[in-house]
Amino acid sequence: MTEPVKSKRITVTVDGTEYTRTVEARTLLVRFIREELDHTGTHFGCDTGHCGSCSVLVDGKVVKSCMMLAIQADQAQITTVQGLAFQDGSLDPIQQAFSDHHAVQCGFCTPGMLMATEYLLSQNPHPTEEEIRRGIKGNLCRCTGYVNIVRAIQALGAQEEVIS
Ligand code: FES
Ligand code: FES
Fold first, then answer.
1. Which residue's CA is minimally distant from atom 2 of ligand 2?
2. d(CA 97, CA 106)
3. Do the bridges between strand 7-14 and strand 77-79 make them parallel or antiparallel, or are there none, so unpaired?
4. Complete domains list, the chain, with CATH
5. Ligand 1 pocket: which of 35, 63, 66 to mutate (most atoms <8 Å of CB)?
6. Is residue 51 in contact with ligand 2, taking CB distance under 6 Å?
7. Among the atoms of ligand 1, which is closest to the Cα of residue 54?
8. How many helices (H) and strands (E) would you count in the chain?
9. pTM for the complete prediction?
10. Tens digit of pLDDT for each residue in 20-64?
């Protein structure tokens, strides 16, 4: 019988920087991002795929990083919330819209909401309210600030040029 893989050397690009690390096979991607790479902007809430606070983009698709093993991300391009802002530190359009529309309360859900929005608008730059609500339905806001979150995304969708 083949021995199960206990650890693996992986290479991932996170927010534009390439990292090579040896990780235990059981390490969740969210733990790898936060604890090994110190990208703590990605939050860790439920650990069961329900809250969405751990959402990141893996090769352009939004993924709940507590539902993926780090070894499954080998060779992937990952974008976390820390990769959204511009080099000079200014907010990207999604972050700016959330700020302008007071779509942040305690902020716990915000990294995941921003990444879900990034993915939604990459697929559908001008979503309807219903499409927005469907697009963020995997992300829970315990402060229940959905109205302003939806308004922020509607404002982005109303712009001519949306997201890169
Ligand atoms: S921590 Fe991943 S979905 Fe809640
Ligand atoms: S702003 Fe508090 S959980 Fe959403």
1. 106
2. 17
3. parallel
4. 7-83 (3.10.20.30), 93-158 (1.10.150.120)
5. 66
6. no
7. 2
8. 5, 5
9. 0.94
10. 999 999 999 999 999 999 999 999 999 999 999 999 999 999 999
